[in-house]
Every structure is written in C-alpha cells, then in structure tokens.
Amino acid sequence: MNTASVVAPLIALPVYAMPAGRVDGWADSAVAIQTIYVEAIQRAGAQEAMLGPRHLDRTEALAVLGYFDGIVLPGGGDVNPERYGQAAAEQTYGVNALRDEFEFQLCAAAIELEIPMLAICRGTQVLNVARGGTLHQHIADDFPGHGKPGVEAGQNLHDVEIVLDSRVGRALGGAHAACSCHHHQSVDRLGDGLRVTARSSDGIVEAVELDGSAWVAAVQWHPEDTAADDPAQQGLFDALVTAARR
After folding, report:
1. Where in the chain are the domains?
2. What are phi and psi of 59, to 5 degrees?
3. How far is CA 164 from the centre of its chain?
4. Which residue numbers are catalytic?
5. Phi, psi of 30 (to 5 degrees)
6. What is the pLDDT of residue 153?
C-alpha cells in the first residue's frame, strides 16, 4: 500500500501559555488553543500537532518545522510594538515576549522552507511584521465594526471584498464573504513581498499573501469561528491542507 496516499498531512499549531488558575481544577499553568482551530484542521483531512512556546533560534525553528507539512499561525494578543519600531499604545494588550519570539521564528522558518502557511488575525500581524511591515495599534475608535478581541462574544460578522485571483479568493470561492472579526489592530505599512488580497468596506486590510510559489495566505478575520457551518470559511483550511499534501 502507498501510505503517502492515506497518511494525513501534519499541521503545526502553536499554542499559548495560560497562567495558573485559568483552568478549573488545575493548580499549574497550562498551554492551550481553542478547539475550533483543531476541528477546522481535522475537517480538512489533516492532523494538528500543538507546539508549546519556547526559545528558538533560526536553526532550531528550521529543524522543528522540518517535521511538518503545513502550519497555522492562530489569533491571540498583540505583537510587541517594539518589533516594528513603535512605543506601545495605551490599548495594546496581551503582549508576550516568548510567544512573539517563538511564532516569529516559526513564521520565518516556514517561509524559508516553503511550507504552506495560513495566518489568522494575530498570525497575519506576525507575518506582516516579520516581513518588515508595521501595524495600526488601535483601529477601533476610527473604524468601528471589527469586533472586540479578548472578550466573550466579541466577534462581529461583516462583509469582506476579496481579490478573486488570489489564494484567499480561490479558497473562499467568491469575491465577497461574511467574515467573523474581533480585532483592534490591522496591517499598516505592508511587509516586503506581501500583497493585499481583501479589504473591508472601510478600507481596513483583511487579507494578504506572500509572493512566490509557496502557499502563504493570511486573513485578519477568524475563519475558524464559522467554518463548521460556512463552506467558504472552511475552504481556507481545505486549501492549506491541499497545499500541504503536495
């Protein structure tokens, strides 16, 4: 039997640290990721492997990702503004130096190895900053309608206009999509080698992709929120896994 045809692609999924007391009944700290990421990856026919944050240099990151067929960079707290040459705004929250170091190294390694990558919300911001771009640190006051991050039921469903001739456009199968957003930051100056492939009606960048043959796409919204019921949003995970099979 050709096992290559039946073995599920292995998708790296970085998780984040949770302090002691966040999990009922656990006295110790933990690492975690929302189940909806896992379910979306599995529906696409892949197997996720969760990676806890740690110190990595370039060589170690390349070695780690050498075991994988693809990677999802998930949402979460803000990237440290020092990484793009700014002081932190008052509204900046959730900065974690270890998580930044870990995910920036994995992002760079994935690009170097040409491993398919889907970046989501914070992951989009990691990709943009890793490529030399900058971020709007707080869009909520000037651009309402993008939800509230880090709070229960903070998501807001709104329409996004998509470039059809793009990885995101082909994955979603249309020029418009209803997308679940809960973010207060967005792409400002675009990073090297990236192009914008979707915007909301207020002009906020909602998706980017990296030039080149590797499947690298990033969305500012949260496709995992609605992927179980929306084939278009599930299509992003399906496209990642299809690329990973190659």
Report:
1. 3-245
2. -60, -45
3. 20
4. 121, 222, 224
5. -150, 170
6. 61
What CATH code would you report for 3-245? 3.40.50.880
Find all residues with CB under 8 Å of 71, minimum gap 6, and list them: 11, 12, 13, 14, 65, 106, 110, 115, 116, 117, 118
List the 216-219 sheet strands across, edge first.
Answer: 47-51, 10-14, 70-73, 117-120, 216-219, 205-210, 194-200, 156-162, 176-181
pLDDT of residue 4: 45
Report whether 34 contacts 224 (CB < 8 A).
Answer: yes
Q: How confident is the model at residue 77 (pLDDT cuts 50, 70, 90)?
A: very high
Q: Are 205 and 135 in contact (CB under 8 A)?
A: no
d(CA 124, CA 198): 12
Q: Is the pTM of this model over 0.90?
A: yes
Task: Quote the CA–CA distance of 182 and 150 in Å, as a whole number.
Answer: 8
Query: What spatial distance separates the first Cα and last Cα of the chain, rounded to whole Å?
Result: 19
Q: List the one residue out of 197, 82, 221 whose CA is nearest residue 145.
A: 221
